[in-house]
């Protein structure tokens, strides 16, 4: 049970979040732009830190704990490989989003394309993203939080045995997250989120994100430190894994569980081919490769294109180099305290795991953390949950208000009316998410299904910025094929025994071929529309413009910055990993590589921006 000090820490965070939302309510309510993108006024570290806080949801440590148990450390390549896409977003696309002046990524569609097909795509994307893809994400975040709170919060002691029993008997099963205890906790947290996020808009959301990031990182590091102390330190941790998982052919070996890379050939926990598929495919199959989604919303809060770029680079570094290892450490400690062959070997608490290794994270919290620190770690996970939920609800509501209501239903709506609709949309998004969440059990599986559904948008999202010939049908066909193939494969359970990376790669490849074929078989976007887009956004790539040689040089420097940026992220990521393993000299070498790569990236981006500024926006076009 939680102690009084634990409850005080959690309650303190909840009151802070509530107060922030109310304090920001007046400023958020001045306009649609103020409500959803903070009036384009935020510095780089605000938006970058908010992006990190949002991607750190309550589900993340659970999923990583499950990955380490099933695939070893190398299982994290499923999300490590996406760093390639996020660095590309930082060095090529972040400035373009900020220049576009849009509120949502769906709005960019009618800036880039023309005609009825563009209007249809905008509506199609707004509805499907807000009410389908977005609610699936919210659903797995709710499901993960239900697992976290299960060992700690018991509403029977709050409501009384009779009242709780009566409520349990009458509660509908389709609105239950595993148990009534979990359900009531999630609904209470959601109610707080809906109040402060609907009141304070994106500015209130981002302010709570800043505290959430600091709280989450400090709590995760403290938890990892205590977990290491429990097993005798880092060196002792790896020694115990060696003892528990020998190479005797009866199960996973210590080498497989602790390797950063899987071994080529048969028998590895994590398929080497799957990792190669991730590095070769997952990053460009990711629908957010260009920043589409809530990344674009965060980027559009930036006060300048430089803030957009630097904030996204900070996100890339913090998301991988800072966040990874505390969770991996806890996942490894879980392998020692709850051994895979017999989770009850050391403590009877392991019996609560069942077949769900994701539960090891909250059970370790219950076992290892003293009062006060338990409250801090639980508060950090509550904060992570609320940060992700408020972002997705606010983001989903932005589609309903800006891209459905304002664009198609009430184009003449006043700013006050739009803010009122936005706040109602926030509540509506929360209600929809509750129904979806009640159907989700395994968080990691939903990660993979969602990536598969959206993998058809990777190539269309890239080419709309880089190639003048792309049109609305490029995105419509790619999105539709990806959604259909994922529904067939996962709906008919054709994925059994096939790594998710292969499935996503296959869907992405099929969607890309069809999308590009449809592009060439349909009419290009109107020349005047392309000209307006080029002058406002100033993209690089295959755009037939006067002075385009300098733009090609700019693209070259940005692609070089992409390479050095990836070296920065992966160098700093594995610097921490080799420090954990006690290989200090290799860690030092990677740290030097990471630092040199960071400086080179910033230098290349400065040169690229000077080239951009040397090309006049007005000029002749041969499109």
What's the structural blueprint in terms of helices and strands?
Blueprint: H1 4-23, H2 25-28, H3 32-37, H4 44-55, H5 59-71, H6 77-80, H7 83-100, H8 108-112, H9 115-149, H10 156-159, H11 161-170, H12 180-231, H13 234-244, H14 254-258, H15 272-285, H16 294-299, H17 305-322, H18 324-337, H19 360-368, H20 373-409, H21 415-437, H22 443-454, H23 458-466, H24 472-491, H25 500-521, H26 527-537, H27 548-580, H28 584-613
Calculate the terminal CA-CA distance, rounded to whole Å: 68 Å
What CATH calls the topology of the largest domain is: Sodium/glucose cotransporter
Q: What spatial form do the alpha-carbon principal axes imply? A: globular
Helix percent reads over 70%
Beta-strand content estimate: under 5%
Annotation field: number of helices: 28
| Unreliable residue stretches | none
Instruction: Give a count of the beta strands, DSSP E runs of length 2 or more.
Output: 0
**CATH H-level superfamily title of the largest domain:** Sodium/glucose cotransporter
Q: Give helix and strand order, one letter per element, not per position.
A: HHHHHHHHHHHHHHHHHHHHHHHHHHHH
CATH class value of the largest domain: Mainly Alpha
């Amino acid at each position: 049970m939680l102690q009084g000090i634990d409850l005080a820490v959690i309650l303190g965070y909840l009151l802070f979040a509530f107060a922030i939302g109310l304090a920001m309510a007046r400023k958020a309510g001045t306009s649609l732009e103020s409500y959803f993108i903070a009036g384009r006024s935020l510095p780089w570290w605000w938006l970058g830190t908010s992006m990190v806080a949002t991607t750190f949801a309550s589900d993340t440590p659970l999923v990583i704990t499950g990955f380490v148990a099933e695939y070893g450390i190398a299982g994290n390549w499923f999300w490590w490989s996406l760093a390639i896409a996020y660095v590309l977003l930082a060095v090529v696309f972040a400035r373009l989003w900020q220049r576009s002046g849009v509120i949502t990524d769906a709005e960019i569609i009618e800036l880039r394309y023309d005609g009825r097909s563009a209007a249809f795509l905008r509506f199609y994307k707004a509805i499907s993203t807000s009410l389908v893809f977005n609610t699936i994400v919210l659903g797995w975040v709710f499901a993960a939080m239900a697992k976290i709170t299960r060992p700690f919060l018991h509403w029977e002691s709050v409501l009384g045995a009779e009242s709780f029993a009566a409520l349990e008997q009458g509660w509908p099963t389709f609105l239950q997250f595993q148990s009534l205890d979990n359900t009531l906790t999630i609904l209470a947290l959601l109610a707080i989120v809906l109040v402060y996020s609907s009141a304070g808009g994106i500015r209130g959301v981002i302010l709570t994100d800043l505290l959430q990031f600091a709280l989450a990182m400090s709590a995760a590091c403290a938890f990892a430190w205590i977990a290491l102390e429990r097993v005798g330190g880092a060196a002792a941790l790896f020694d115990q894994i060696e003892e528990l998982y020998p190479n005797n052919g009866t199960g996973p070996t210590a080498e497989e569980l602790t390797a950063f890379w899987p071994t080529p050939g048969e028998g590895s926990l994590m398929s080497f081919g799957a990792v190669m598929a991730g590095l070769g495919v997952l990053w460009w199959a990711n629908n957010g490769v260009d920043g589409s989604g809530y990344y674009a919303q965060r980027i559009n809060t930036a006060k300048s294109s430089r803030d957009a770029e630097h904030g996204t680079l900070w996100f890339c570094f913090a998301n991988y180099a800072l966040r990874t290892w505390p969770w991996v450490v806890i996942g490894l400690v879980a392998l020692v305290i709850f051994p895979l062959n017999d989770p009850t070997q050391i403590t009877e608490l392991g019996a609560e795991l069942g077949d769900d290794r994701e539960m090891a994270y909250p059970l370790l919290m219950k076992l290892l953390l003293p009062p006060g620190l338990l409250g801090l770690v639980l508060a950090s996970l509550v904060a992570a949950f609320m940060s992700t939920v408020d972002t997705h609800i606010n983001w989903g509501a932005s589609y309903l208000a800006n891209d459905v209501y304002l664009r198609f239903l009430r184009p003449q709506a006043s700013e006050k009316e739009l803010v009122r609709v936005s706040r109602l949309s926030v509540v509506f998004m929360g209600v929809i998410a509750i129904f979806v969440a009640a159907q989700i059990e395994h968080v990691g599986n939903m990660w993979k299904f969602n990536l598969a559904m959206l993998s058809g948008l990777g190539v269309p999202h890239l080419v709309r910025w880089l190639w003048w010939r792309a049109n609305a049908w490029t995105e419509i066909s790619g999105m539709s094929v990806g959604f259909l193939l994922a529904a067939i494969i996962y709906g008919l359970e054709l994925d059994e025994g096939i790594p998710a990376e292969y499935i996503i790669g296959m869907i992405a490849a099929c969607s890309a071929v069809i999308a590009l074929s449809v592009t060439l078989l349909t009419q290009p976007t109107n020349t005047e529309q392309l000209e307006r887009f080029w002058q406002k956004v100033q993209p690089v790539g295959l755009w037939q413009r006067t002075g385009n040689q300098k733009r090609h040089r700019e693209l070259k420097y940005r692609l070089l910055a992409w390479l050095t940026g990836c070296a920065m992220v992966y160098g700093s990521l594995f610097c921490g990993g080799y420090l954990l393993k006690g290989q200090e000299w290799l860690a030092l070498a990677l740290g030097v590589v990471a630092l040199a790569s960071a400086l080179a990236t910033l230098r290349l981006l400065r040169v690229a921006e000077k080239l951009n500024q040397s090309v006049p926006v007005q000029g002749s076009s041969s499109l």
